[in-house]
Amino acid sequence: MPCNRAGLGAGDRHRFGGAAYKARGSFEHNRPIFQMVSARRRSGKMRGDAIRSPRTEKKIMALADRFFIVAILFALAGMTLGIWMGITGPEVFNYAAVHAHINLAGWATLFLCGLWYRGAPAASSTGLAKAHFWIAVVGAILLVIGIVGAVMPNATLDKVVIPGSLLTLLAMVIFLVLVARHRSA
User: Fold this and answer.
1) pLDDT tens for each residue of 109-141
2) Residue 13 — φ and ψ, nearest 5°?
3) Which CA distances in Å does 96 have to 15, 27, 84, 103, 142?
4) Dist CA 44 CA 112 (whole Å)
5) pTM tops 0.70, yes or no
6) Separation of first and last alpha carbons in the chain
7) Which residues, 6 or more positions from 9, have their beta carbon under 8 angstroms from its beta carbon?
8) Distance between CA 64 and CA 60 in Å, rounded?
9) CA-CA distances (angstroms) from residue 72 to 19, 64, 81, 134?
């Protein structure tokens, strides 16, 4: 029998009254395995990181993971648009610029930022890094919406491309500052 989470192998345990118990000779021999595992989880003696109680500590998603998730959403949008353009035919190829900016400003840029933050965890905890995330995401969204407005027959959204472009540029300048401050020695 394979080893279980409590660290017990096939020869270490036996069945007694429907609950698995550790073999005699251990100070825990009269406690069911599920109680021993629970005690070890509470004390942080299980493999891996210390176990945190979901009641006492709010789980906060790492900044790099936020970049990854938003980047993947942009990639899915870009793929969907590309497939739609391919199925529909050449009459919608004017949306090629939208497709390109979704994939470049959204997917590639945000994913690369996430990779850098994963490698520089000290930088990801700064307020400037959190501002960088929101400016980059809002900028990429506005940039794409503005380009859609510019290529549509009824171009009512084309003015959104200006703040989107400026926010995307600002996000890249902030990223440059963060990389310069936290560069490896």
Assistant:
1) 999 999 999 999 899 989 999 999 999 999 999
2) -135, 160
3) 66, 69, 11, 11, 17
4) 34
5) no
6) 49
7) 1, 3
8) 12
9) 45, 12, 14, 16
